[in-house]
Amino acid sequence: MRVLIKYQDGSGQITEREISDLRKENESNIDAFCHTREERRTFNLDRIMHAVAPDTGEVLNPYQLVPLMRDSESIDVLTWKSRQAIKALKFFSLTTRGFAKRERKHVDAFVKSLANTSIHTDEDISEWVYSLWCADLYDYRDGNVEEYKGLLEQIPNSLLEECRAFAVRIVLGSARQPENLDWMQRVNDEFSPHPVVRKPLRPNCDD
After folding, report:
1. Which of 6, 91, 120, 198 is deepest in the core (most CB within 10 A)?
2. Same-domain check for residues 60 and 151
3. Is 97 within a domain?
4. Is the dihedral angle over the CA atoms 154, 157, 158, 164 positive or is it negative?
5. pTM of the model as a whole
6. What are phi and psi of 155, to 5 degrees?
7. Neighbours of 143 (CB within 10 A)
8. Assigned domain for 39 exists
9. Per-residue pLDDT reduced to its tens digit, 57-110
């Protein structure tokens, strides 16, 4: 079976690849023949942004392209359709208030609002969110915003309003603290149908 994927590499570049003869390499990666590059390549599951069967147009779950990669009730499988939105919200948090317990609880709640994760404990979800790769923070701090922008561009329009709502919760933080107007402007700029990502002037968070 051939699969057409949209893949984001470590530099943030997004390309379309047609792959076949997929095999499990380890828990995070699959090995496949890439017809675009005409050689076998390794693909990180978290970097597959979209997968489709070219013959039928069926949209496929990246985490179930290869048997035994993920259990059907795993958080990866349950959230695959909204994965880019989750990654983008986490990265937004990292580049504003940071990702301490207070901020992480909002991303945890976002995950639970998107999928039926009732079989998983709050601790399971929090651990999954904490370990979820989203984008290279150091590249972003150095002014390379393309990887983050690529995530934002893949958020379905139907999720943008909810993304904005949770982003506002993150930047408000404690009710005792005033809003940061720059962060509020980022909410409007970034969680929109045509996201605008401005280069950071200076580092503003710790990873």
Report:
1. 91
2. no
3. yes
4. positive
5. 0.83
6. -75, 125
7. 10
8. yes
9. 999 999 889 887 888 899 998 998 899 999 999 999 999 999 999 999 999 999
